[in-house]
Write a structure and sequence with these properties.
- The protein is α+β, with helices and mostly antiparallel strands and 265 residues long.
- 37% of the residues lie in helices and 20% in strands.
- The strands form three sheets. The protein has a six-stranded mixed barrel.
- The chain is globular.
């Protein structure tokens, strides 16, 4: 993953300091797709931006926006590699590199995650780190809107990595057991294959870890913790869908529509 730090992404336009040294963009969350945002270009800075050119922006009636599609095409022209989802991949598709932007601010719809009641996990020091780091913006829109090239996906991959690194030994064992169950049991059946993914497993563990006392995650209670995760609403919904839908097309459609994010409510 490569994070471009030349273009500055902010939430409030009046917070931009003058004279402008870097290109400035303002986040505009898409209300119909809470996990995605538009990036409205406010000003071009004195520093030359290698990745964002005139071909990367789109003029609309409401302003000038940075196009995710054009940005990715610009990366492809520079690096002479193939597009693979939101990434650039080598010819053999063995290595993917995601070129993304960073916002030092969490989106407004993620703020309830910081403030909501929880037992002991995650600890306050991890919450503060996530809050101060912000989020990443990946150049890809919703799968349900193939022609929407102005939407960028909000990524909390850095936040999720910090959360996983804060796991105790039993939480890590539970995570491994859930992934093993997914690989060796769920994905071996045609009906449920590819309906669940490691993303849902990790999200279910995040929710359970937050809702119960962290002292619950002790080795003698590993089986109980595993059961709590399997009975979580996210896992239960996806497993129920595997019984109701029997075609791969329907599986993919429902999976995309029902996907929930731990940090966005």
């Amino acid at each position: 993953m490569y994070v471009d730090d030349v273009l500055n992404v902010t939430q409030i336009e009046r917070n931009i300091k003058h004279p402008v040294q870097r290109s400035e963009c303002v986040i505009e969350i898409d209300t119909d797709h809470p996990g995605f945002t538009r990036l409205r270009l406010i000003a071009g800075g004195k520093r030359q931006h290698f990745f964002v050119s005139q071909e990367s922006v789109v003029n609309t009636q409401t302003g000038i926006y940075l196009s995710a599609t054009n940005f990715l095409n610009r990366m492809r022209q520079i690096h002479k590699e193939e597009i693979h989802g939101p990434c650039l991949s080598n010819r053999d598709q063995t290595v993917d590199i995601a070129y993304c932007l960073r916002s030092k601010y969490l989106p407004y719809n993620a703020m309830p995650w910081i403030l909501r009641y929880r037992r002991k996990w995650p600890p306050n020091v991890i919450i503060d780190r996530i809050k101060h780091y912000g989020c990443l913006l990946v150049p890809i829109g919703p799968k349900t809107l193939p022609d929407c090239n102005l939407l960028w996906r909000i990524s909390f991959s850095v936040a999720e990595k910090q959360l996983v690194h804060s796991f105790n030994f039993t939480q890590l064992l539970c995570y491994g057991l859930l992934k093993l169950t997914l690989k060796r049991i769920v994905n071996t059946h045609d009906v449920g294959k590819d309906l669940l993914c490691s993303y849902f497993v990790k999200t279910a563990l995040f929710w359970v870890s937050e809702e119960v006392d962290i002292d619950t995650f002790q080795l003698p209670k590993l089986s109980f913790c595993f059961t709590l995760c399997m009975n979580n609403d996210i896992m239960g919904e996806q497993l129920l869908l595997s019984e109701l839908f029997h075609t791969r097309t329907q599986h993919v459609l429902r999976k995309d529509q029902s996907q929930q994010h731990y940090l966005i409510t």
